[in-house]
């Protein structure tokens, strides 16, 4: 019996998550049809992807990129229609023919298209954690109103999803859950002497010991802000209060997270650190499909280590717990200031150790407000960016 193919839109197709998504999709042409792809600048890669998957639409970030893409597609006889800009991203995220949207744009730029997919009631595969962190209440309300099937791509949240009862209610305690144990590798600087941190370069920060990822999330992993954003992400996805989320350092990244139940049971999901596992899980849910991932060889790995995070070395994690406890616009301000600080660091304008100071400054000087609408979220984002830019510009660059 032939089953209708799942029609897929990939937002951020040229990024690390986007490329891994298309790798899984290419293994199952009988299951998936690619309807639309997006990129910001990487026109050559997007053109190759269009030639391989023949999507109906491709969206890029500027007219110049669109002209270049059209030129390449003409030469290769690829019949994809090229569109430009944020509104076009919202259009492809809500196409009536689409079943599933992979939200894999990095940062706040992904918010509007990801929300559009939720409003259109699509099956939503969420990698773009920043969208959920900044707009938690607004985003989850759209998910509820439109009956969205929301599947986490972040490996930790995907592991938690797999470790919760399949038909879990929105109240964790009703399911006997005591705690969520969010694992963290600790990034490349877990053991680096303090005095050396000041001088680390963007390339050192992006050399993650276990995962190959985009540059922004790689820096977030090095500061552990990534784990902080993930604590807030877990709060919204699983309706878990901050006190029930514990971060555990696990340098091998084999256990992707755990759920502890009232009877003392701890359920974990394990696997090699390869994003194709959570991507394939979410694409095929509730079935399981081949993802091209190496089988886990526990005897070769030998041992799994765990330790508590050092909040002095990683103040960003403390700041994220603080923003979650404060609620309202605080997570959006935290996220915005972090994006500014990380960009400044990547461009050599800010030293690694000043990233938390920029975020703390933004949190302390933006007035607390409640968040009820998209406009509130955008205001908090703009205020957080302004405050962060102001301080970042006055700090010395890397020595
Ligand atoms: P990348 O930087 O590798 O890719 C980002 C994608 O978004 C690219 O397609 C990029 O286009 C596009 N993009 C960048 N800026 C904009 C913009 N302003 N408007 C529209 N599109 C834009 O990021 P990752 O794939 O690593 O991460 C994507 C998301 O997934 C992030 O939110 C990250 O936190 C999350 N995530 C990633 C994981 C990973 O393993 N990589 C793991 C867990 C979560 P172009 O290439 O043309 O610049
Ligand atoms: Mg993660």
Describe the protein:
- Among the domains are: 6-152, NAD(P)-binding Rossmann-like Domain (Rossmann fold), CATH 3.40.50; 327-399, RNA polymerase sigma factor, region 2, helix turn helix motif (Rna Polymerase Sigma Factor, Chain: A, Orthogonal Bundle).
- The chain is α/β, with parallel strands linked by helices and 399 residues long.
- The strands form 2 sheets. The chain has a 7-stranded parallel beta sheet, sandwiched between helices.
- Helix 5 (111-119) links the parallel strand 5 (100-103) and strand 6.
- The protein is built from 17 helices and 11 strands.
- It is globular and about 55 Å long.
- The structure holds NADPH dihydro-nicotinamide-adenine-dinucleotide phosphate and magnesium ion (MG).
- Magnesium ion is lined by residues 154-156, 230.
């Amino acid at each position: 019996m032939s089953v209708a193919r799942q029609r897929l839109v990939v937002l951020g197709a040229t990024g690390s998550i986007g490329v891994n998504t298309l790798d899984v999709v290419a293994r199952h042409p009988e299951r998936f049809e690619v309807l639309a792809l997006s990129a910001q600048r990487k026109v050559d890669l997007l053109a190759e992807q269009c030639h391989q998957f023949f999507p109906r639409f491709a969206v890029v970030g500027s007219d110049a990129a669109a002209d270049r893409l059209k030129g390449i597609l003409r030469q290769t006889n690829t019949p994809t229609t090229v569109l430009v800009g944020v509104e076009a991203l919202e259009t492809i995220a809500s196409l009536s023919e689409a079943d599933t949207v992979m939200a894999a744009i990095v940062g706040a730029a992904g918010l509007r298209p990801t929300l559009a997919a939720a409003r259109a009631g699509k099956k939503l595969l969420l990698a773009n954690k920043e969208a959920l962190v900044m707009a938690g209440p607004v985003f989850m309300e759209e998910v509820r109103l439109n009956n969205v099937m929301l599947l986490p791509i972040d490996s930790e949240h995907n592991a938690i999803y797999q470790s919760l009862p399949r038909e879990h209610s929105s109240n964790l305690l009703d399911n006997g859950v005591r705690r969520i144990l969010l694992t963290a590798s600790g990034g490349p600087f877990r053991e680096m002497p303090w005095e050396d941190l000041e001088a680390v370069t963007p390339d050192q920060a992006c050399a993650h010991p276990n995962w190959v990822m985009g540059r922004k999330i790689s820096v977030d992993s090095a500061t552990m802000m990534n784990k902080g954003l993930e604590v807030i992400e877990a709060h919204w996805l699983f309706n878990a209060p901050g006190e029930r989320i514990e971060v555990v350092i696990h340098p091998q990244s084999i256990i992707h997270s755990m759920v502890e139940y009232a009877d003392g049971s701890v359920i974990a999901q394990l696997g090699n650190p390869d994003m194709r596992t959570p991507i394939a899980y979410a694409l095929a849910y509730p079935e399981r499909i081949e993802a091209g991932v190496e089988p886990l060889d526990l005897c070769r790995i030998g041992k799994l280590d765990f330790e508590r995070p050092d909040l002095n070395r990683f103040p960003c994690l403390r700041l994220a717990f603080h923003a979650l406890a404060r609620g309202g616009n605080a997570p959006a301000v935290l996220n915005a200031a972090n994006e500014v600080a990380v960009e400044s660091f990547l461009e050599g304008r800010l030293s690694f150790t000043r990233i938390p100071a920029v975020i703390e400054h933004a949190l302390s000087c933006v007035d607390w407000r409640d968040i009820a609408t998209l406009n509130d979220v955008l205001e908090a984002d703009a205020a957080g960016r302004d405050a962060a830019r102001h301080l970042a510009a006055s700090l010395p660059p890397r020595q």
